[in-house]
Write a structure and sequence with these properties.
This protein has 88 residues and is of the alpha+beta class. It has three helices and four strands; from the N terminus they run αβαββαβ. The chain has a four-stranded antiparallel sheet, covered by helices on one side.
Length: 88
C-alpha cells in the first residue's frame, strides 16, 4: 500500500470516517462492521444510502482513530471485502 500524507494531516486520536461503496446486499453492513470491530471495538455511527438505481449501497462509518497504521489497515481490509467496490 502506498503511504499517504494523512499522517501529517491528522492529529491522533481523532474521529475518522470511511465511506464504503459496495453491492446492495444485506451482508454489506455486517461485513464492514466486523472488519472495523477488529481494529476499533465499540459502537459506531453508521449511515447507509442506496445508489440511484439501487445496485449499490454507501456505508459511512466513523471510528476513533488512534494511529495512522490503524487507518491504513482498515482502508486495505475494507477494500479487500468481496462485495466492496471502493473505499474513500
Amino acid at each position: 500500500m502506498q503511504k499517504t500524507k494523512l499522517n501529517e494531516m491528522l492529529e491522533f486520536p481523532c474521529p475518522f470516517t470511511y465511506k464504503v461503496m459496495g453491492l446492495a446486499q444485506p451482508e454489506l453492513v455486517n461485513q464492514v462492521v466486523e472488519v472495523v470491530q477488529r481494529h476499533d471495538p465499540g459502537h459506531y455511527n453508521l449511515q447507509v444510502k442506496p445508489s440511484s438505481k439501487g445496485n449499490y449501497h454507501s456505508v459511512s462509518i466513523t471510528i476513533n482513530a488512534t494511529h495512522i497504521d490503524q487507518v491504513e489497515t482498515l482502508y486495505e481490509e475494507l477494500g479487500n471485502l468481496e462485495i466492496v467496490r471502493m473505499v474513500l
